[in-house]
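Hi there. Long-time user, first ticket. I'm pasting a complex I've been working with (about 607 residues overall). I'd like to know whether the download I got is complete or cut off, because the file seemed smaller than I expected. Thanks.
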Amino acid sequence: MAVATTLVAALAACGGSDGDGSGGGAELRGTVKIDGSSTVAPLSTVASELFKEEQARVQIPVGTSGTGGGFEKFCAGETDVQDASRPIKDEEKQACASKGIKYEEFAVANDALTVVVHKDNTWAQCLTVEQLKKIWEPGSKVNNWNQVDPKFPKEPLKLFGAGTDSGTFDYFTDEINGEEGKSRTDYQPSEDDNVTVQGVAGSKGGLGYFGFSYFEENASKLKAVQVDGGGGCVAPSVQAAQDGTYKPLSRPLFIYPSAAALKRPEVLQFVEFYVEKHAEIAKRAKFVPLNPTQDAKLKQALATLKSQAGK
Amino acid sequence: MTVTVRKTPITAALQGRRRPLEPAFRVVLLASLAIAVVFLGILLAYVVSEGWGRLDSRLWTNFPSKLYPERAGAQSAIVGTVYIIGLTGAFCVPIGVMTAIYLEEYASREHWWNRLIELNIQNLAAVPSIVYGILGLGVLARGLDLGRTLITAALTLSLLVLPVVIIAAREAIRAVPGSIRQGSLALGATQWQTIWRQVLPAAVPGIATGTILALSRAIGEAAPLLLLGAVTHITFNPESVTDAYTVLPIQIFNWIKQPEAEFHTLASAAIVILLAILLLMNSVAIWLRNRYEKRG
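Hi, the file is complete. Here it is re-exported in full:
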């Protein structure tokens, strides 16, 4: 907490001197419209709040229509920046192209989908992708832990997971079951990950999955399972998500700024700010910051987009 | 608001020869009432105790913040909700009441098209709200190019609650005794004067109750507004009807989904605010009703 306070103070000081110095006192106005994935929204919200500390007059509403719903608006030219928890799909690319919307893909942070079990679960230290698939694949009849692994005790398995509309569900099913959207259906789904937290925390044989930030916030109530994607058991952590060893459940999170919107100074400055401060934004939104390779790629993407926008 | 049992000849006669079923029936009725009241009580007690820590001025003087939960507030959502309800009322009450007057006082049930209109209105009242959201998005936001703005939201919610307002207003107008109309007409008033000076004032209590019920539905809606682009994080109040906005149900929904426990407390506090606004609206309706009932 003390660290956070110091950080805030330092930032505020930074922001002040920045505004007076390099900004030349030019106060920006206008609106930067952001919409898209609710997973990415915390990142963009934090970015907008930090940006507002420097440019108080710029208004940055952040919507959460979901990645798909957001792309629909973005490709209709209704929003300036799109939040996405997966890369743009082909039909969305076509929709954007038909409206002449140009954009660039910016990976701005990483997330580690975390598989969690009850605190008193002493047996499931590590699960392989095959075991997870056995549990979650469509038509799976696994309903007891000893069916997952004969060495596990006899304990009814209670499953909690993401709602089918979420990018989390898409990603998990794609990586674990091999096909996006395919999953057994006799589990308790919820769009609100807190429901999954409570469900798993309340049943000894519980198992669920969600974004890393929900685990961090509830680490005292739950236990994260190590995942073996073929290269040995790896626990979800900032380090493992960053260096790519937490496979296959770590994923990048994206924003897609529109080239046309970048012509407006408030959007340009906001996107530049987002790129420059991405590590701090990710940390404060409780996500995993980019690794150096990703960082270089992000800078590259910004340069490409700026040249497209004629900036 | 106490209900007194009037001593009509029937109740008096019944008291003379009570049957064993009578007290049992009364218990069933009381139990039904208790279910509604007890659940409302539990809900109120729960949200107030959950949100107590944050039920202070920060809630309505500050804007939402992801970085500083202790500073976060719901001002933009409160202002957005008040705007939307005000605009929705301004659109749907005049249109709804005028439609009801036409259907009750002018339209003849012998024409098939009037019966069709009636049937349609009754069906529309049962259409799920998300369908209105799709309609608003397609016709208002995109077709008329109103965009994802306050005015689109208010017009969509007006459409959503219009059937309820019409049905309630019709019931209220129908309940005005025909003798009042006949008396007014006999004294030489025109039909318009009769409606405006006699029928409508007598129907106001019923219309007010129906309108408040309808607006109470509108105030709690989140689904169509999510589709219409109400944003979840907004740190400014709408200044005109073409601005972006958010409303309390969406702000509450967003806070509940956050991983941090502080936001869950905030969500409960915001629910209390939403209930307070509802209560305020209900009091206005009751005040209106009493005022007009005394006159009548």
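A couple of notes from our side: Chain A touches chain B at residues 31, 33, 35, 38, 41-42, 45-46, 48-50, 52, 59-65, 73, 76, 78, 191-194, 213-214, 216-218, 284-286 (CB under 8 Å). Chain A has two domains: 27-110+254-308, 114-235.
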